Amino acid sequence: MFKGFQFFLKLSMKYDKKYFAYMILNQIVLFVGTIATIILPRYLINEILESERNTNIILLLIVLATGIPFLATMLNGIFENHIFLHRINLYNKFNQFMSEHILKTDYVYVEQESFIELRKKAERYLYGDYRGFGVVFENMIIACGQLLVFFSTVVIISTMHPAFLFLFAAIAAIDALLQGKIKRKNNDVSIKQVPLEHRMSYLNDVVANFEYGKELRINGLNEWISEKLKKHIRMLMGFYSEIAKNNDKMSSISSVMMFVQQFATYLYLVWQILKNRLGIGEFTMYLTALNTFTSTLQKLSTSLVDVKQYSEYYQYLEEYLNLPTRQEYGGDTVERGIAHEIKFQDVTFTYPGQQQAALKGINLKIGQGEKIAIVGENGAGKTTFIKLLTRLYDADSGKILIDGKEIKNLSNQCLVNLFAVVYQDFKLFSFTLKENVALAKTENTSDETVEDLLKKVGLGAKVETLKYGVNTNVYKNFDEEGFQPSGGEAQKLALCRAAFTEADIIILDEPTAALDPKAEDEIYRKFDEIVGGRTTFYITHRLASTRFCDRIIVFDKGEICEIGNHEQLLELRGRPGELSKLQAQYYKK
After folding, report:
1. What is the 3-state secondary structure (H, E, C) of 101-126?
2. Is 405 in a helix, a strand, or coil?
3. pLDDT tens-digit series, residues 281-320
4. What Å distances lie between residue 470 and 427, 448, 480, CA to CA?
5. Angle (deg, nearest 10), helices 55-104 and 2-15
6. How far is CA 245 from the centre of its chain?
7. How far is CA 369 from CA 60, 62, 102, 130, 411, in A?
8. What is the pTM of this model?
9. N- or C-end of the chain: fewer Cβ atoms within 10 A?
10. For 185, what's the count of Cα atoms within 13 Å in the CB-facing half-sphere?
11. In sequence order, which residues have a C-beta less than 8 Å from that of residue 364 and are 6 or more positions away?
12. Mean of the per-residue pLDDT values of the chain
């Protein structure tokens, strides 16, 4: 419980100290206003009932009895507004921190379903089941204020009769015990519904995401997807109904406890008045204290149980924030702006949760400045090879060396500067054409530089038709006049991005797979001219697109089965060689 409180306290101290300060001030103001409402009417009523009234004292008590609650209410409204403002500021800054954390987290975790579920569970602590950012922390602060009111009313009530303290303490203990038990049941249900909520979120994204729009409509999937949504809603409603039933039980328990408490108090106070042992002022004070005690106890119990319940999620947040990041890698670097030598030494890798190795005992040396083609059927290990080379994954065994240094000892920034990769499932951003090419270097890049590069990949004529040229937005998400690229245009834009970079090693992982063989061959040749003497990897399942490469490496079932240039591979026998010949007969000039 306190770990979570400390986490949010450090967070507010780091990003917005005023958020915590206003929270504390607000609870102090509420406490003063509440106590004044309980105590001051007693003295006012007693003074009015005195045979020798003092008008000045009565006026003073009226001013205090009305003025203090007025000021408390006014300040409470002001502080609540400031709390809201600073909570939003803290929320935005924390979201930025979380985004940066995700970007730094190792890709091996980001790609796993377990990571997504872990994040969802962590968010339950942060957002209290959609009730708002920091609700657990604020409940803790509110509980502290309620504790002040609670103990103050206990002191007042104890002057009525000490036995009531034991009665109220017993009622509070029973109420908290029963509510805690029910909250734990809700917590168990809530954890079970996380995977279902994740699937529901995915289905909603499928419906709203334009990338799925054509598939849904051309295949007439409206009713099919709608049924899936309805099914998931029914399943979620089952969880929510169970939580609602538990909450009904909690409300009933609290109501019964409150009834017992108030009935006993009223009975005692009326009896005391009938016996002339209690004045009207004291009677009013005790009743107000009782009502305040009851409502405060209920709020306090709810706040503390909530804090306890959601604090169980803090372990997921802690686990999520402690996932290894790329910044924890080594500090070695390699020289920039030169051709590099790459070695794979007996490298083996198996994807998490899989039985069969994706790569087995890979031994390979890439010379400085070589043009390498990596060929193989789908699932042969081509992309896995690249993910290990760029250290999106770490090999299970063996070593990967660049200029004699193990990549696991190279810094993250060194790896970022070293590689430029275009994957088959590359993504363009809903930014301008220029930003999609130059990325983080946009501000220091001229329009002319980007225009020249776009011309080289065959997009020059298209850019000339655009109203804002290279400053035109890609896609129409934020601009109706945006550029909606075709598949081929998007691929050329992605290649242009890789060509723009100053990386020493360029990797194309089948970004042109959707093109016909001749178009792919033409683009690869143009791209080869643009990148010049830099080490380049061309991953493809088409052998004909690799004729200009120095060497071709053929993967099959996670192993290297052939190495040679285009002509040498066509002379090979056996299954891989036959595969090469089969492909070649379609693509020869």
Report:
1. HHHHECHHHHCCHHHHHHHHHHHHHH
2. strand
3. 888 888 888 888 878 877 887 777 777 767 777 788 888 7
4. 18, 9, 16
5. 90
6. 30
7. 91, 90, 34, 54, 22
8. 0.61
9. C
10. 16
11. 342, 343, 344, 553, 560
12. 81
